[in-house]
Amino acid sequence: MSNNLLRVFTKCILLLFFSDLLWAKQYQSHDSSGLALGAKLIANYAKSAQALQIDGKTATFKTGGAGLRLEADHSCWGRFFVSAGGGYSPSEQASFLSVTLSGSADGTFYGFGYERDFKLSPRWDAEFVADYVAYDLSGDLSGSYNDRQVDAEITTDTTQQEISLGLRYSLTETTSVYFGGGSTDWTLDAIADGTSGAIRATTEALADGSDMFKFIGVRFDFWDIPVSVTLKRSKLSVDNEVDLNTIDIDLTLSRNLWF
């Protein structure tokens, strides 16, 4: 069923894309140099509602951070972007030798992608997005087992490749609401290298999947700064199936501040 939906989704994207390119070719003469550079402050946070069960091990799918996104927006060809940033998590948990460990962790992320807007009517727009993002998280966690201290260094590498199609309805010139859905291909590689007394061991949990997601959001101006807030809901399917909740916030920077 997911493959059929993806085929239909892809055909719709290609139809919209090439029809819009034909329109752009017809009217290209009105703006032949329509390239604009932009920047946004971005923040995101995602966490699985429960721990993932992977071959008898448990791992929490948690990503997030804040950073900067740079964009190159062409009036005919769409918007290309790159992003990077970092984050800090005060409460990470993982299992190591049947012991639940907890502690803090910090990490970095980077990504890139492409967006394309399609004007459907004076108030309705469609938006196609394809992006990739990678998160690297590491931290020193600790716990106890039979009154013995257990310490471990945890590293988690997570990637997400997403493709989505949304509809946006403009309420005013500066305020709009949007919704849509898509699919994500994700990977998780969590490694724990720890000690308990004289015992040293390393465990690893590997998982990947392809799942559908839905999103809803709002765009508005706050003190003349364009702001977008997006809520996303999806499911991750491994040995168990868990909900993944995500929030994304971005603030468009004035060109006077950086260019």
Please give the structural blueprint:
Elements: H1 2-26, E1 35-48, E2 52-54, E3 57-59, E4 62-74, E5 78-96, E6 99-119, E7 124-145, E8 148-170, E9 176-196, E10 199-222, E11 225-237, E12 241-252, H2 255-258
Antiparallel strand pairs: 1-4, 1-12, 2-3, 4-5, 5-6, 6-7, 7-8, 8-9, 9-10, 10-11, 11-12
Order of helices and strands: HEEEEEEEEEEEEH
Instruction: Classify the helix fraction into a percent range.
Output: 10-25%
What is the CATH topology descriptor?
Answer: Lipocalin
Low-confidence stretches: 1-8, 21-30
In the CATH scheme, the class would be Mainly Beta
> Which outline best applies?
elongated
Distance between the termini: 47 Å
Strand content: over 45%
Output the radius of gyration: 21 Å
CATH architecture: Beta Barrel
Computed structural class: mainly beta
Mean pLDDT: 81
Quickly count the domains.
Answer: 1
What order do the strands of the largest sheet run in, or round the barrel if closed?
A: 1-4-5-6-7-8-9-10-11-12
Number of strands: 12
Tally of separate helices: 2
Largest sheet: 10 strands, antiparallel, barrel
